[in-house]
Each structure stands twice: as structure tokens, then as C-alpha cells.
């Protein structure tokens, strides 16, 4: 969720940027958020996924990033830069709110001495994966 908030701040500054250095600072801040996403998401996916689908889910991150970049180029060709900025801001809000509903990973719960909850989460994840 912290990554989403960082990205949200990065895009929220853009409409109020008065000079080029503010835009650079905003993009650097967004770069930290992007780097965090590309390092945290694979860890989370590897902790919650079953062995047989882990590779597919790991690949989805790269595919999603590339499709998102392509869509960004396509959308920005047809709308002005302010609309793109507000659309990106909206996407960051949706991402940040969506992160509130993600469960804690079993590894995190196990480290925090919540073994009972961890075992329940493992059972829930395996039941969900085996039914789908």
C-alpha cells in the first residue's frame, strides 16, 4: 500500500508543477514506487502461489507492465496531457484502495508468530486454488 501512496503522491504533484525540477522530482519519486512494485510483487506472488502456477503468475507482472505502457502511449496519443495525468492519478487511487483488501502473506504471518492464522490462510489459499 505504501508503494501505491508513493505513486499517488508522484502523480498528484504533476498538475501543480511550476517548473521542470518539480516534474523531475515527481518522476524520480514515481520511479521509486515503480522499483518497489517490481521487487515486492514477485515476492508476494511467490509466497501465496502454488508451485504449478508460480511461473505463470510471475510472468503476468512483466506482461501487465508492458501492456500498461502500450496503453499509456495509445491513450496519450488521443487525449491531452492533463487527462492522462488525472487518469494515472485515478489508477493510483484504485491501486491503493485495492491493496487494502489483500491478505497478509502466510510468510509474514508466520514470522509475526501468528502460526494459527498462518495455517488457516494456507488452507484457505490451497482450497481456493484447488477449486479453480
TrEMBL record:
<feature type="transmembrane region" description="Helical">
    <location>
        <begin position="57"/>
        <end position="78"/>
    </location>
</feature>
<dbReference type="InterPro" id="IPR005828">
    <property type="entry name" value="MFS_sugar_transport-like"/>
</dbReference>
<protein>
    <recommendedName>
        <fullName>Major facilitator superfamily (MFS) profile domain-containing protein</fullName>
    </recommendedName>
</protein>
<dbReference type="InterPro" id="IPR050549">
    <property type="entry name" value="MFS_Trehalose_Transporter"/>
</dbReference>
<feature type="domain" description="Major facilitator superfamily (MFS) profile">
    <location>
        <begin position="1"/>
        <end position="132"/>
    </location>
</feature>
<dbReference type="GO" id="GO:0016020">
    <property type="term" value="C:membrane"/>
</dbReference>
<dbReference type="InterPro" id="IPR005829">
    <property type="entry name" value="Sugar_transporter_CS"/>
</dbReference>
<dbReference type="Pfam" id="PF00083">
    <property type="entry name" value="Sugar_tr"/>
</dbReference>
<keyword id="KW-0472">Membrane</keyword>
<dbReference type="GO" id="GO:0022857">
    <property type="term" value="F:transmembrane transporter activity"/>
</dbReference>
<keyword id="KW-1133">Transmembrane helix</keyword>
<dbReference type="InterPro" id="IPR020846">
    <property type="entry name" value="MFS_dom"/>
</dbReference>
<dbReference type="InterPro" id="IPR036259">
    <property type="entry name" value="MFS_trans_sf"/>
</dbReference>
<feature type="transmembrane region" description="Helical">
    <location>
        <begin position="24"/>
        <end position="45"/>
    </location>
</feature>
<feature type="transmembrane region" description="Helical">
    <location>
        <begin position="84"/>
        <end position="103"/>
    </location>
</feature>
<keyword id="KW-0812">Transmembrane</keyword>
Amino acid at each position: 500500500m505504501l508503494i501505491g501512496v508513493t505513486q499517488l503522491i508522484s502523480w498528484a504533484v504533476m498538475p501543480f508543477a511550476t517548473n521542470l525540477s518539480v516534474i523531475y522530482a515527481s518522476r524520480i519519486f514515481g520511479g521509486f514506487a515503480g522499483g518497489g512494485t517490481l521487487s515486492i510483487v514477485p515476492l508476494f506472488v511467490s509466497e501465496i502461489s502454488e508451485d504449478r502456477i508460480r511461473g505463470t503468475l510471475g510472468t503476468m507482472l512483466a506482461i501487465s507492465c508492458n501492456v500498461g505502457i502500450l496503453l499509456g502511449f495509445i491513450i496519450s496519443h488521443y487525449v491531452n496531457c492533463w487527462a492522462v495525468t488525472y487518469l494515472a492519478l485515478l489508477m493510483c487511487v484504485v491501486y491503493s484502495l485495492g491493496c487494502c483488501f489483500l491478505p497478509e502473506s502466510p510468510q509474514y504471518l508466520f514470522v509475526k508468530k501468528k502460526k494459527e492464522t498462518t495455517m488457516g490462510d494456507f488452507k484457505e489459499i490451497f482450497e481456493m486454488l484447488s477449486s479453480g
